[in-house]
Design a protein that fits this description.
8 helices, 14 strands, Nucleotidyltransferase, domain 5, globular, alpha/beta, 5-stranded mixed sheet
Length: 257
């Protein structure tokens, strides 16, 4: 793989620094370039997530994806699993045995030729939508179900609620993920989503719940006034905060601790 390949042209509008934002999903890979205000300066690029997806294959696909985009000054990455200090710890959609402790942040920095930062994908989405007040919870509905929790705008330690049983022995992923939607249909899936909302309110008692992800558009009917549907583009635009917020606010642990 040619790790030096990079887009040839700079964005034609917006202000520096530019951020290459990458959203790695279980179904699709998305990327765009953000200006200094977090606005996308080019349409987002998309490619299907390859399966199987060992690290080298996913990296090769991401290299093709980002080559479609103009140059940027830095990179932000949202990954669907537990990440810490630039390392992938779990990758439930891709096979954790292959991904455990993989230095994805450093490898994508090498491919892009720019510094990179990485968080869980639901956390990145949350950074694009939260108000920064009170207890705010994010739920993403896509291939699986992701969550992120914030207190007064600061990211709380990551909880992999998606892997926790929510109904019988079914996890959140199995109960309201993409396969569940296809199996039970929209009406029953919507009822399940509302059960999940009730469970999360009991568990966390958030002031606000933001629901995003590719399948949020399938939610029908009224929702409680503390629940808001948000654009899936926040999985990209939230990437700006990885560079504008402090390590403390992002829950990043300094090296050596």
């Amino acid at each position: 793989m040619d790790t030096q390949q990079a887009p040839a042209e700079a964005p034609q509008k917006g202000a520096h620094p530019f951020t290459l934002a990458i959203d790695i999903g279980g179904t699709g890979l998305k990327a765009s370039v953000l200006d200094s205000q977090g606005n996308m300066v080019v349409p987002r690029a998309w490619m299907p997530t390859p399966y199987p997806a060992p690290p080298d294959r996913l990296l090769a696909t991401l290299q093709i994806l980002i080559a479609k985009l103009p140059q940027a000054d830095r990179v932000s990455i949202g990954f669907p699993g537990v990440v810490r200090n630039g390392l992938v710890l779990t990758a439930p959609h891709f096979d954790t045995r292959l991904w455990a402790r993989f230095p994805l942040e450093a490898r994508l920095a090498q491919i892009a030729g720019r510094p990179a930062r990485m968080l869980n994908d639901a956390e990145v989405q949350g950074l694009g939508v939260i108000a920064g007040r009170g207890i705010e919870l994010v739920l993403t509905l896509g291939t699986g179900a992701g969550t992120a929790l914030f207190r007064e705008g600061e990211l709380a330690p990551h909880l992999e609620l998606a892997q926790h049983p929510v109904h019988g022995d079914r996890t959140y992923n199995e109960y309201v993920g993409r396969d569940a939607l296809a199996k039970v249909g929209h009406k029953r899936w919507n009822k399940r989503v509302r059960r999940v909302i009730d469970v999360l309110r009991t568990l966390v008692l958030p002031d606000s719940l933001y629901i995003g992800g590719g399948n949020a558009s399938h939610i029908k009917g009224d929702l409680p006034d503390w629940v808001r549907l948000v654009s899936n583009d926040a999985g990209l635009t939230g990437g700006l905060a990885l560079w504008t917020r402090s390590d403390h606010a992002l829950g990043r642990i300094p090296s050596g601790q």
